[in-house]
Design goal:
The chain contains ten helices and seven strands. By secondary structure, the protein is an alpha/beta fold. It has two domains: 90 residues, no CATH class; 144 residues, HUPs (Rossmann fold).
């Protein structure tokens, strides 16, 4: 229930939910509070347009994507002992996979890079991701299947109890500790890396960031200022991370 409550609150605070809520509230009260209602309607509309601009979303994500890419030689120099790949969601009831669940686009991007690092370094892999909404199998099991069956990369540890990034760190550390692993290469999206590093380090792991899927922008300058659905989603991701860091500071 906690995860559902958090997702509901997030939907109301993130684009486009917040803007729609502002405009709806403004519409409801404009008859009695004309100025306030007008401000809410116009403000919600302006914020929605701003959140949809590529120039806004790209700069927000750039604030998070400060970690430089890692190389295999740097992994060796820093004596990484294992690669930890964070789950990024599932693709439920995939028709082309016989209506079975498989990994999402975000998870697949992380797995692809984790497989590359494994081939370069030979380091063992841990995949982490549970089933917060009760779907089976857990996300980490789906990740293991893709790595072993499609990328032909072995997985040593499978962590299936977690429901968020903080729990990814907690339960992964417990498995790694039993094998004496304290220094890891952490694979996740570049925009997700700052929060991930903090929580894994809180669990007594020495983290070597291994970010992937940086936000690159090939749009012409003019299109930077044209509202775009993909830009709106990127803005939501950036704000989700910023809000998540605040929530983790309070919650954990």
């Amino acid at each position: 229930m906690e995860i559902l409550f958090i997702r509901l609150i997030e939907a109301l605070l993130m684009p486009p939910g917040l803007m729609i809520l502002m405009m709806l509230l403004g519409t409801l009260i404009i008859g009695r509070l004309f100025i306030t209602g007008k401000i809410l309607i116009i403000g919600g509309f302006v914020l929605l347009i701003a959140a949809s601009l590529p120039v806004v979303s790209a700069n927000l994500l750039a604030l998070l994507e400060q970690t430089a890419p890692i190389t295999s030689s740097q992994l060796n120099q820093r004596q990484a002992q294992a690669i930890v790949i964070l789950g990024g969601g599932r693709y439920a009831d995939a028709p082309e996979y016989n209506d079975q669940d498989t990994v999402s686009k975000h998870t697949l991007e992380r797995l692809r890079y984790g497989a590359r690092l494994h081939r370069q370094s030979g380091l063992p892999i841990l995949v982490t991701g549970g089933n917060p909404y009760g779907r089976e199998p857990p996300e980490a099991e789906l990740m293991r299947r893709v790595l072993e069956n499609e990328f032909r990369v072995p997985v040593k540890w499978v962590e299936t109890a977690s429901s968020n990034t903080w729990e990814n760190a907690r339960y992964s550390q417990q498995q790694l500790k039993r094998d004496g692993i304290t220094r890891i290469a952490l694979v996740t999206h570049a925009w997700h890396m700052p929060r991930s590093v903090v929580v894994f380090e809180q669990h007594d792991l020495d983290v070597i960031p291994a970010p992937t899927a940086y936000t690159t922008n090939a749009r012409p300058l003019l299109l930077q200022f044209v509202p775009d659905a993909r830009a709106l989603d990127d803005t939501r991701k950036a704000l989700h991370e910023l809000l998540g860091r605040l929530w983790y500071a309070v919650r954990y």
